Amino acid sequence: MTTHTAPRPDEIVARCSDLTRLFGADGATIAAVNRITTEFRRGELTAVVGPSGSGKSTLMYLLAGLDAPTWGEVELDGYRLTDFDEPELAALRHERMGFIFQSFNLLPGLTAIANIRLPESLGRHRRPIDEAWLQQLIERLGLAALLERLPHELSGGQQQRVAIARALAHRPAVIFADEPTGNLDLATGGDVLRLLTELAHESGCGIIMVTHDPRAASAADRVLSIRDGHLVAELGRASAAEISALMLADAIDADARDADAAATR
Ligand SMILES: Nc1ncnc2c1ncn2[C@@H]1O[C@H](COP(=O)(O)OP(=O)(O)OP(=O)(O)O)[C@@H](O)[C@H]1O
Asked: Start and end of every ABC transporter domain (predicted)?
């Protein structure tokens, strides 16, 4: 990354244009992500919703540089990912991105605080953790009394809050959250999402959350609906009922298109 000049701060933290990922299987080609052009802002939680197989995970992998597009571009924090080789992409991920998973992904033998500091202790973050920010995060996430506990001594919601602290500790530009409430009950998931949204607003970090759950998406500032690899609709803040209605309308449109295509064959 030393060969690239540092980007200027900008309202847009990530963007993709004409982003496309084709997979070939058994002689057939699937467009898992099909010509998606959109932007993600700092301080905003964006939910990407869609049914199973619609392309949500593939879109997230492309935005994080974990997969390469067949064509199209991704720009993250001012860096064009297609200009980077794999070691540079890994460095960019460690420095500018954070990840939160459905299964928390904490190391079972390490205390909560050791898990939070793990990326730093592995030398992955080039910038040292800002201790005042870390303290603030620990307070905001209600973790102060839990720092010496091992993951199995924490509830699911507490483990996810540790994972959020770990993802935010180095002040990334973007956090990718893959079904972050998938293993939590409704109330605990709601608390985690409220914290995520508040922390996005307070820290200026952009959060991109993949989910198939309209209730989880209703915590977001913006909702993108994906179907068959296409970005089919976009909403601002919306209720779970509005998001469900949108997903249903998209499903009916897709079924009608499939029926038309079958009839003309
Ligand atoms: N490595 C791969 N090789 C072939 N096809 C793939 C590959 N990865 C994904 N696909 C296909 O691309 C499409 C989109 O998959 P993707 O995993 O992005 O969907 P998703 O919306 O995240 O689904 P889910 O909610 O079930 O995780 C699917 O049809 C899937 O089978």
From this structure: 14-253
